[in-house]
């Protein structure tokens, strides 16, 4: 009884954002588990081949043989939905990594050096930032072509200015602190100051942007797939499956749109919950206000 009371009191001390963060972590861990073990589940016969469209009846309703039915091309909706998580997580991982690798160093250099370098970089980043992210991604995806890496590059360009601006603003405010001046007086090179003293102080807000951009990247990937500019057609991807399923709604075939849409929504919601919790952790004023 004492244990249950202590657990209850501990749970009541958690803020709403923390509870949502833990829920989001559980959702994303579930999708990671599904994406990693999907090939094994297919090998043991639990999942059907997501690219096999000739062995199944097109437009078959959910049944014991096809849990979520089949689409108009004869693809098994359940296996396509499960394997679609692999494409989503791959693109999300590559997109966020590329944007961080490019945006964070540029923000550090721009904020630390200032002057003409800062003005030039700020001009280019503001120019990119003014372009709608989806429009920019569509244009770059059309130029680069289909593929996991090409889509990741096309989507990541729109997120680089966000990391740049956050890191640059923090660097500008931190570079005049006493510990930075002391490091310079002791002979620390600009590279050492940036990597050892400034980086850890300005990187704290990046995880918040990381999770929010990851959630947005899933939606952008779905939009590109819906427009036919995402991954190759043989690769299971939620946006492409929604495009293929759109004409089915007029014929009463609802399962081909419902389940890929639910999968995409759940992953976006999970990442958004994580971002909300991390934002509260790094923002004490917001936490105290709540």
From TrEMBL:
Residues 85-275 form the ABC transmembrane type-1 domain. Coiled coil: none annotated. Pfam families: BPD_transp_1 (PF00528). GO terms for biological process: transmembrane transport. Its main location: membrane. It is found in: Cell membrane. PANTHER family: D,D-DIPEPTIDE TRANSPORT SYSTEM PERMEASE PROTEIN DDPC-RELATED, OLIGOPEPTIDE TRANSPORT SYSTEM PERMEASE PROTEIN APPC. This is Binding-protein-dependent transport systems inner membrane component. It comes from Crocosphaera watsonii WH 8501.
């Amino acid at each position: 009884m004492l244990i249950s009371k202590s657990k209850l009191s501990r749970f009541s001390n958690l803020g709403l954002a923390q509870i949502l963060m833990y829920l989001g972590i559980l959702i994303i861990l579930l999708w990671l588990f599904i994406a990693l073990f999907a090939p094994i589940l297919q090998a043991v016969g639990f999942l059907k081949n997501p690219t096999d469209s000739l062995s199944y009846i097109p437009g078959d309703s959910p049944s014991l043989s096809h849990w979520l039915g089949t689409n108009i091309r004869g693809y098994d909706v359940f296996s396509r939905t499960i394997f679609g998580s692999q494409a989503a997580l791959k693109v999300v991982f590559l997109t966020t990594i590329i944007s961080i690798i490019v945006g964070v160093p540029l923000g550090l250099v721009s904020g630390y050096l200032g002057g003409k370098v800062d003005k030039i970089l700020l001009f280019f980043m503001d120019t990119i930032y003014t372009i709608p992210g989806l429009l920019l991604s569509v244009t770059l995806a059309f130029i680069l072509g289909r593929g996991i890496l090409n889509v990741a590059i096309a989507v990541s360009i729109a997120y680089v200015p966000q990391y740049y601006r956050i890191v640059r603003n923090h660097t500008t405010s931190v570079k005049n602190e006493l510990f930075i001046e002391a490091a310079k007086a002791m002979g620390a090179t600009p590279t050492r100051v940036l990597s050892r003293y400034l980086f850890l102080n300005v990187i704290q807000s990046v995880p918040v942007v990381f999770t929010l951009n990851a959630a947005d990247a899933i939606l952008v990937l779905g939009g590109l797939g819906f427009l036919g500019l995402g991954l190759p057609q043989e690769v299971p991807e939620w946006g492409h499956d929604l495009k293929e399923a759109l004409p089915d709604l007029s014929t009463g075939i609802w399962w081909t749109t419902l389940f890929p849409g639910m999968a995409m929504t759940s992953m976006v919601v999970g990442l958004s919950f994580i971002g909300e919790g991390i934002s509260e952790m790094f923002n004490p004023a917001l936490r105290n206000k709540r």
